[in-house]
Design a protein that fits this description.
- The protein is an all-alpha fold.
- It folds into two domains: 141 residues, no CATH class; 34 residues, no CATH class.
- The protein has ten helices and no strands.
């Protein structure tokens, strides 16, 4: 069986089991996520600040992309990056849900006294919060699909993991710099292990100083 017939057999709705309508939902979700992937990659490659990191990633892919250690390291960073994006989007979605629930229940201060103005204000607030809630929910679903895909061993995932390795590392460094106190606290929790990994000429206190 060649690849085309295999692909066709996988996407063709089975005669028994899932109805065609349910199967169509999965196909639509898959195609929407494919479009999302093009959009996400376009933002990465369209950012001029990522030029050097992407160039280094492509050079690494051409020179050492077949090495198992490089593939393992790159995909590990990719999975961590996708998980970080999910965590961030989960926070946005939770905030949107709270705002949406308050808008529905009306548990928020209203800057108007007239009943007609209150009604218009509430309707507008529900519309805005509903849009943000469903938008953040959609983005969270795309981020979750990204995370699932990052665990696959497809040729596309392996390629993207190496080519975007340095841009993904930059995102983690930026995130750590914004949460430096948390980072230092976690490092102190694992002091014994870190001291074993550090060179003999660098003490743990020197390491923490450099991190700060």
């Amino acid at each position: 069986m060649n690849s085309l017939s295999l692909y066709d057999s996988l996407l063709r709705p089975p005669l028994e089991g899932l109805p065609k309508s349910v199967w169509a939902v999965f196909l639509v979700g898959h195609r929407v996520h494919r479009m999302w992937c093009f959009y996400r990659k376009g933002k990465v490659y369209g950012n001029q600040e990522n030029f050097r990191a992407l160039a280094a990633g492509h050079a690494l892919y051409c020179t050492a992309g077949q090495l198992p250690m490089v593939r393992l390291a790159a995909q590990s960073v990719l999975i961590a990056t996708r998980a970080m994006h999910c965590k961030e989007q989960q926070g946005h979605f939770s905030e949107s849900f709270v705002e949406w629930r308050e808008a529905i229940e009306g548990t928020y201060p209203v800057p108007y006294k007239r009943s007609s103005e209150k009604l218009m204000y509430r309707a507008e607030r529900i519309a805005v919060c509903s849009k943000k809630f469903f938008s953040d929910g959609f983005l969270l679903s795309m981020r979750l699909m990204d995370l699932i895909e990052a665990h696959s061993f497809s040729a596309e995932t392996k390629s993207d993991a190496i080519k975007e390795l340095f841009t993904n590392c930059m995102q983690h460094i930026e995130a750590l710099s914004k949460n430096r106190s948390t980072l230092v606290s976690e490092l102190h929790k694992h002091r014994v292990l870190i001291e074993k990994l550090l060179p003999s000429n660098i003490s743990f206190d020197d390491f923490i100083t450099k991190v700060n």
